[in-house]
Write the structure tokens for this entry.
Amino acid sequence: MAYKDVYDSWKADPEAFWMQAAEAIDWTRKPSKALFDDNAPLYEWYCDGMVNTCYNAVDRHVENGRGEQTAIIYDSPITHTKREISYVELRNRVANLAGALRAKGVGKGDRVIIYMPMIPEALEAMLACTRLGAIHSVVFGGFAANELATRIDDCTPKAIIAASCGLEPGRVVHYKPLLDGAIEMASHKPEFCVIFQREQEVADLIEGRDVNWHGFQYGVEPAECVPVEGNHPAYILYTSGTTGAPKGVLRPTGGHLVALNWTMKNIYNVDPGDVFWAASDVGWVVGHSYICYAPLIHGNTTVVFEGKPIGTPDAGTFWRVISEHNVRSFFTAPTALRAIKREDPKGEEIKNYDISCLRALYLAGERADPDTIEWAQKVMQVPVYDHWWQTETGFPIVGNPAGIEALPVKIGSPTVPMPGYDVQILDDNGQPMKPGELGAIAIKLPLPPGTLPSLWNAEARYVKSYLTTFPGYYETGDAGLIDEDGYLYIMARTDDVINVAGHRLSTGAMEEVLASHPDVAECAVVGVADQLKGQAPVGFVCLSKGVDRPHEEIAAECVKLVRDRIGPVAAFKLALVVDRLPKTRSGKILRGTIAKIADSEAFKPPATIDDPAILDEIKSALQTIGYAK
Ligand code: COA
Ligand code: AMP
């Protein structure tokens, strides 16, 4: 079958398409229908089915004779550890952990925060929650205590499962003090914390609140899988929006299972038993979908890699992992390849490894620049597929359906819409635009199964953020165009979100932090082009009247403040003190214009600009840090 036939068959009868895709999932009670639209424009899928995520990701494979197959390969060049966990071991480990959580009162619908690095126990914690119908929320290890506290207060977890530490090259990330600090800051207090003690750092436990991962499992009854309704939330994953308050994206159980399973063959072109590797982190959506759930649901072997593309120990690490573990399909962010390319431009390292097992490279998370794609094609000698999606959707919106039909690659385009997504380019009035014209990228409702039905405890915010600008559509927040052949091109974000090293960050959140500095009267944060990370944040601060301390001192404090409040992941290293910020006459800060000046791009200030002379001041300030050439 060709891609077009599959896409057209979905368009002609979405209900039949998604009911058929649902056949690949083991339901305790089959759903009577796919789409539930009584509450439109809020849509849900498979609501009257009963199903369990962990059963589909783990137990069913054991029951179907895959018990001895490796489910998880843990490869940590940081700790020099390699370990394999079979499906049957995984089932036993997860059932015990779930049993222990249940014994302490965790059940269906309870929230559990997971704060763990890239170790198999992170996946086990996720699976133990879904086994019980508890709703997990994984928090990335690169966030500061304050961000963790915000999430604790928003999803009010009964328990928190954390590791004693994470390991970054050259430094131990002390998770436990961060966790203790976050709980102290938060108004909501979890009933208990489960701490996985790593040998690199054993944390002090707080009596009466903290239990040891191993100790609390001793002697408990393993838990069975608890079937839940198709629309029961499997997890909440917080992502950046325009303001400092992160959005709690909800992932519904039934649609998540169906959609992820569909993608493994049709997009990633792997069969059950094949090894699949996504080099990301469980704290991001890529980690949820393609390190943990999709490969396991589909009966693949997944790789949990605790390391970096370079420096652990060298730029050949990715090639070693691919070759040693027989990886078939590999997924990473363009930044990771840029890092390797910078260190090993000629691709010498790859010659030390046989990566003939690899069939394709998949890139997402940020724009894949042509240089990086071409370099990867040349060095890796496999097709390189860019694909585009978001935390909100949980799986690719636009990609190259290699398992159905590998379409010709057009460099710069993530290719074509996947079934389930009617992607359109709209003008400011919500009218569809012609091929080749640049506009807002929107998706006609309903979104497919597995995508967010709402935000946790914030339905009004969901409607306002995504469904209001273009009635009848989901607003993606990205701008781009579709060419004559139906290929999509992503050009920019339409909001304040920036993408740093494949990490989605809110400039609004950073501005809130800068504004809290006692000497800062006004500020703006913009994303400027960065050769390695795609974008980097730069802060501009105007000082309050009468402040006469050295500017460098205040700038350094601003950098520290963002690191302390948001975390190292914000990669906020540049702050500039300026006299004034360029604004429109109505007072709107011209962030887009500042970014263009920084990137030395041609720009036309808006006619409504208040004082064009300020642009020269900004340019001079940027020149002092090597921008705005
Ligand atoms: N826990 C704690 N801190 C973390 C962390 C984690 N899980 N992940 C990153 N950090 C820290 C880093 O140590 C760094 O701290 P520093 O300022 O003290 O150096 C900071 O957050 C910024 O990290 P990052 O932007 O990732 O930069 P880097 O210089 O450490 O590494 C790359 C650069 C290119 C190697 C790295 O960004 C990379 O591998 N990117 C791949 C992106 C990716 O997988 N994205 C996921 C979405 S698909
Ligand atoms: P996240 O929710 O963290 O996955 O970030 C989603 C955002 O990252 C998208 O809305 C885009 O802005 C950007 N993004 C993801 N994949 C791509 C891609 N292939 N090309 C361009 N931008 C991308």
